[in-house]
């Protein structure tokens, strides 16, 4: 019985440390979204023509790339073409991007990581409450 209690205590410590890590990452993600929204709002307010030009250029480039993938005979930007890198810097500065889609680091695939995350999520469900006014959990 003591071994079982010690195992439960260790498991709870691990889940608590994991929860703290996940919460820090989540808070950073929320901050990144808020900063992007503020940049986007400021860009639209201060220079609506620049924001519109960047959005249209981005849509045009994405349409050309999508057309290339549908018909490979159409041109695709070459590796030495700096247009994509330069437009990315402008889009990020203007807040016209989704920071949650950006990959900063990569790691090798961890076995059972999705299963561990699933079990963690299931263990945290009882702590969540739905707020009808906000429409979020």
Automatic annotation (TrEMBL):
This is WASH complex subunit 5. The lineage of its organism: Eukaryota, Metazoa, Chordata, Craniata, Vertebrata. Belongs to the strumpellin family. GO terms for cellular component: endosome; WASH complex. PANTHER family: WASH COMPLEX SUBUNIT 5. Pfam families: Strumpellin (PF10266). InterPro entries: WASH_strumpellin. GO terms for biological process: actin filament polymerization; endosome fission; endosome organization; regulation of actin nucleation. Coiled coil: none annotated.
